[in-house]
Every structure is written in structure tokens, then in C-alpha cells.
Design a protein that fits this description.
The chain has 2 helices and 2 strands; from the N terminus they run αββα. By secondary structure, it is α+β, with helices and mostly antiparallel strands. It has a two-stranded antiparallel sheet with strand order 1-2. A hairpin with a 2-residue loop joins strand 1 and strand 2. It is elongated, with a radius of gyration of 15 Å. The chain starts with 9 loop residues before the first helix and ends in a 12-residue tail after the last helix.
Length: 92
């Protein structure tokens, strides 16, 4: 997010969410149950602590059958991600 123009752009974040949603749907995940968190790995924004650089971010929220989850950081999003179910009685 720190490498966008302008830096920490909400518009670029929305473009990325749209593109990644299409991809993860193809891999078996439901995009509505996956939290999208804009981060800066270089600066550590929104990874462990909420960032002041992305004041437009009000947090993320996902709704699932087993309950809702919400947060503002990447660490919280990783903790709430559910794996898709795959048939175990069939060959690879």
C-alpha cells in the first residue's frame, strides 16, 4: 500500500480486492468470508498495529455461518480465516 500513487490509496485497495476476490473464488474460498486488509510490509502498517496512514480504513468484517469476525490488523484476519472443505473420500 505504501508503493501506490498516491501512497496508501483507497482506490488502489479496492482494485486489488476485486482482482483477488476473483482468484480466491477459483481456489475454493468464498470471498465474502475472507478479510481483506491493506498492509505495508515495508513499514509494518496494519500488520500488528492499526496504521494512521490509512485513515479511510474503518476495519474489516466477515460474516460466516459460525459467527462474525472483525478487526483492523492482518494478524486478526489470519486468525479468522477458515479453510475450505474438500472431499476426503475421493482420490486426488
Amino acid at each position: 500500500m505504501d508503493f501506490t500513487e498516491p501512497p496508501y490509496s483507497q482506490k488502489r485497495y479496492k482494485e486489488i480486492v476485486k482482482e483477488v476476490s476473483t482468484y480466491i473464488k477459483k481456489t475454493g474460498y468464498n470471498p465474502d468470508t475472507v478479510a481483506f486488509v491493506p498492509i505495508s510490509g515495508w513499514n509494518g502498517d496494519n500488520m500488528l498495529e492499526p496504521s494512521a496512514n490509512m485513515s479511510w480504513l474503518k476495519g474489516w468484517k466477515v460474516t460466516r455461518n459460525d459467527g462474525n469476525a472483525s478487526g483492523t490488523r492482518l494478524l486478526e484476519a489470519l486468525d479468522c480465516t477458515l479453510q475450505p472443505t474438500h472431499p476426503t473420500d475421493k482420490p486426488l
